[in-house]
Specification:
The complex is a heterotrimer of chains A (about 375), B (about 100) and C (about 350). Chain A is of the alpha/beta class and about 375 residues long. Helices cover about 40% and strands about 15% of the residues of chain A. Chain A has 3 domains: about 5-65 and about 175-250, HypD, alpha/beta domain 1 (Rossmann fold, 3-Layer(aba) Sandwich), CATH 3.40.50; about 75-175 and about 260-305, HypD, alpha/beta domain 2 (Rossmann fold); about 320-369, no CATH class. Chain A has a 5-stranded parallel beta sheet with strand order 2-1-7-8-9. Chain B folds into 2 domains: about 5-50, Roll (SH3 type barrels), CATH 2.30.30.140; about 55-85, no CATH class. In chain B, a hairpin with a 2-residue loop joins β4 (about 40-45) and β5 (about 50). The two termini of chain B are about 30 Å apart. Chain C has helices spanning about 1-15, 30-45, 50, 85-95, 120-135, 190-200, 215-225, 240-250, 265-275, 295-305, and strands at about 65-70, 80, 80-85, 100-115, 140-145, 155-165, 180-185, 230-235, 255-260, 290, 315-320, 330, 340. Chain C contains 10 helices and 13 strands. The chains are: A alpha/beta (about 375), B alpha+beta (about 100), C alpha+beta (about 350). Chains A and B meet through α1, α2, α6, α7 and α9 of A and β1, β4, β5 and α1 of B.
Chain lengths: ~375, ~100, ~350
């Protein structure tokens, strides 16, 4: 059975025709350009469909900080692990989180040491666990950007209204526009344009990138996730770059409404308020996190457990921050390939199997980048 | 950063829907998308419908690809095709849709 | 003695409720062990070797022998398309078949968590016997232990097996050669998708079914069609991606597959899209990957398609000399570019990004 609205965006004739057109568009550029794909799901799709290898030589895609698990700081992971090790706790989170290292260990290892860690597909599953295990505290590790945060907000609101007091959330959510402007304000940022995340934008709306265009003059195209979407978006970016224009444009017209999803954003703001957040590899970005509001304090694991993993520190010597902004290459990092490998990742670019460092490590520089 | 795939709503009861993807069905919450109705395509993320899939826009984009693949574009200049999404007016989100 | 008596009483009471459970006493080596063996295992697996109840089976074997072992800890123990019993039998049979051997005899060790419903054990053993009949092998030796609640997850089964390798057959993971065609015997990822969709919170209303099946017959048909089958492997844990990487490394070659050539079931693809999984990394329990001399590929493919377990077989790629000093597996993408297909890292879990 064909998958509606997926198969047509993967068809070989479509993507090859788009690649031909992209080659023409890139040929019109006066100099080589670097485009950052902000979103980790874009990075995955680009790798899976072999897009990077097929690009014209004057177009370079670099991977941005948009993999939410990869940028989760050691301190947040350590705190969650300490909570997971408490008696009577069932720790729940998304499968992506299991591999991400903390200061001493990651969740997979914590599970091996007796922590009850359960992988769920949805917060709805965590709510069900809370109902089925009234004697246990169910802690959900809230990770993700604006696409995911409203689903956690919905679960907190539901737990609150139905008196499900044993459902708690440790919020390590992050928001995209703040991180993008923080990136843009890096003086040496070597990026000419952004491929913006379609599903985050389905929530926050396309106008969220107005500041990137207005303040930094960098073109933004909001892209879908199939190969044809990504190629068309690159054509759109080349079009802007060729004529020296910078605007927010939408390729992912089928998935994104001009005002985003106001219901989801209202729920997000009802449950969370902005706070400073630490990003692995990037440090603290003011206002880029989401804290649970006082009205929902009963479901805030951070307040309930008061766990302090005093040993937490971010990995030393890791150059991911500079790699994410395109300033350094993995080979310039002293940890790369030694202390930091795909099986024992240190920084976010190695944590994600498709991150820049992991790609370098697995695919070798010459093949991919 | 966020995996979401198109799914069709095949039944809906208050905030709970059953959605279908390629012959599989699963429960989904439509609490974030109160306007979603029976027969709508929605983007599913972590068990929640997060956005309506605009079928007309999808078909329009596909039509654009088909024209390109079929070589029926006459002009070589990118702005003649609509494919590069450059808005003739020049600024901002007026030219949001490349199909326009 | 007192303890024994108490357990005995529990057993009797449970029995009257038709809710009999496996108790520690069933593994004590005493009378209840004897009852369990006779009632469950002896009845299901009855054959002249087992019926003697000797300490070991006495077998007549000549020529080259393939000998293997496989442990099974699958959770859940019942899944659409099979259960841990069927899986434990086919797992070992298939390992033997991948050497070109004719599977003959199986031994089985059962580690049972106390409290397992008696009925569950009977179902598991009976589907094991059913699979043994399909595979034309006999279970000739066995062992049972019962462990305290919490020390196992329902039941673990380890099987070992022997098979005889016909004269002239030289099949090995290190046998793939440049120029070989790569053939898969059918749709990929069915077992892994069935298991993952059955785990907590993943329930789909349409059931994905495991492909769990013994492949000895299919391999025999392939061997009859060609003497140029160089390597065979069943892509279980780690899926086709792991198998291709293992064969490439063992044989010292590069392998390239075409992504659009891999057969998938629609529902498996949908589940993978929904859960963010790559079907090439998902386990299969009734499929094989064959490396066959190009000249014989069509003939082998034809033989496979005539067998019910190979009806969807197709050529998915080819083997080339290694480009570098280490061996790699490439996937040709829809764009025509090629990407590295790496070994999967860690367990396959649903992801959101």
């Amino acid at each position: 059975m064909p998958l509606s609205f997926l198969d047509d965006f993967r068809r070989g004739d479509h993507v090859r025709a788009l690649m031909n057109r992209l080659e023409k568009s890139a040929a019109a550029l006066e100099r080589p350009v670097r485009i950052m794909e902000v979103c980790g799901t874009h990075t995955m799709a680009i790798s899976r469909h072999g897009i990077r290898q097929a690009l014209p030589p004057n177009l370079k895609l670099i991977s941005g900080p948009g993999c939410p698990v990869c940028v989760t700081a050691n301190s947040d992971i350590d705190t969650f692990i300490e909570m997971a090790l408490l008696p009577g706790v069932i720790a729940t989170t998304f499968g992506d989180m299991l591999r991400v290292p903390g200061t001493r260990m990651g969740l997979a290892e914590a599970r091996g040491r007796g922590a009850r860690v359960q992988i769920v597909y949805s917060t709805l599953d965590a709510l069900r666990l809370a109902r089925e295990n009234p004697e246990s505290k169910i802690i959900f590790f809230g990770i993700g950007f604006e696409t995911t945060a409203p689903t956690i907000a919905a679960a907190i609101a539901e737990a609150s209204s139905s008196g499900l007091d044993n459902f708690l959330v440790l919020s390590a959510h992050k928001t995209v526009p703040r991180a993008l402007t923080a990136l843009c304000s890096t003086p040496e940022l070597a990026v000419d344009a952004f491929l913006c995340p379609g599903h985050v934008t389905a929530m926050i709306g396309p106008h969220a990138y107005d500041a990137v265009v207005a303040d930094y003059g960098l073109p933004c195209v909001i892209a879908g996730f199939e190969p044809a979407d990504i190629l068309q978006s690159l054509i759109m970016l080349c079009g802007q770059l060729a004529v020296g224009r910078a605007e927010v444009a939408l390729q992912y017209t089928r998935g994104v409404r001009p005002d985003g999803n106001p219901t989801a954003m209202a729920l997000l703001h009802q449950v969370f308020s902005p706070c400073d957040a630490e990003w692995r590899g990037l440090g603290v970005i003011p206002g880029s996190g989401l804290a649970i509001r006082d009205e929902f304090a009963a479901h805030d694991a951070a307040r309930h457990f008061q766990v302090d993993a005093g040993y937490s520190h971010e990995p030393r010597g890791c150059l991911c921050g500079a790699i994410l902004t395109g300033l350094k290459t993995p080979g310039e990092c002293g940890l790369f390939g030694k202390a930091c490998t795909p099986d024992h990742p240190v920084g976010p670019c190695m944590v994600s199997s498709e991150g820049t460092c992991a790609a370098y490590y697995l695919y070798e520089t010459n093949d991919v980048l | 950063m966020c995996l979401a795939i198109p799914a069709k709503i095949v039944s809906i009861d208050n905030q709970r829907a059953t959605v279908e993807v390629g012959g599989l069905t699963r429960e989904a919450s439509v609490v974030l998308l109160p306007d979603a109705g029976l027969g709508d395509y929605v983007l599913m993320h972590a068990g929640f419908a997060i956005s309506l899939v605009d079928e007309d826009e999808a078909l329009e984009t596909i039509r654009l690809f088909e024209q390109l693949a079929g070589g029926s574009f006459l002009g070589e200049g990118p702005s003649e095709t609509g494919l590069d999404g450059l808005s003739p007016g020049g600024t901002g989100l007026d030219g949001l849709s490349p199909a326009e | 003695m007192f303890l024994f008596l108490r357990l005995e009483i529990t057993f009797m009471v449970s029995n009257s409720n038709n809710d009999r459970r496996i108790l520690l006493a069933h593994g004590s080596g005493g009378r209840m062990t004897q009852e369990l063996i006779e009632e469950v295992f002896g009845t299901a697996f009855a054959n002249p070797f087992l019926d003697r109840m000797d300490d070991a089976a006495s077998l007549d074997l000549t020529g080259r022998i393939a000998f293997t072992i496989d442990s099974h800890v699958v959770s859940p123990i019942f899944f659409p398309g099979g259960d841990i019993g069927r899986l434990s039998l086919t797992g070992t049979v298939n390992d033997l078949a991948m050497m070109g051997a004719r599977p003959l005899y199986i031994s089985a060790g059962f580690i049972i968590e106390e409290g397992l419903p008696f009925q569950d054990l009977q179902t598991i053993v009976s589907s094991m016997q059913q699979a043994a009949a399909e595979a034309d092998v006999e279970v000739v030796a066995g062992d049972t232990k019962v462990v305290e609640r919490g020390a196992a997850d329902g039941i673990f089964i380890t099987t070992s097996g022997v098979g005889s390798i016909p004269a002239g057959i030289q099949i090995s993971a290190s046998g793939a050669r440049p120029g070989d065609a790569v053939i898969v015997s059918g749709t990929i990822g069915d077992h892994g998708a069935a298991i993952i969709s059955r785990r907590g919170g993943m329930d789909f209303n349409v059931e994905l079914t495991s492909d769990c099946a013994p492949l000895g017959g299919l391999v025999a048909d392939m061997l009859a069609a060609s003497s140029e089958i160089h390597a065979l492997r069943d892509p279980t844990r780690g899926g086709v991606a792991a198998t291709l990487n293992e064969i490439a490394a063992a044989s010292g070659v590069d392998i390239e597959i075409g992504e659009d050539l891999i057969p998938f079931q629609g529902e498996v693809r949908a589940a993978c899209e929904l859960l963010g999984l790559d079907p090439l990394f998902l386990a299969n329990e009734g499929k094989l990957v064959a490396f066959v001399a190009q000249a014989d590929a069509a003939r082998v493919l034809d033989a496979m398609r005539r067998h019910p377990l190979g009806a969807d077989a197709c050529i998915v790629g080819s083997v080339a000399a290694a480009e570098r000093d280490h061996c790699r597996v490439f996937a040709r993408t829809v764009l025509g570019s090629r990407r590295i297909l790496s070994m999967p890292s860690g367990e396959q879990l649903p992801r959101i990004c």
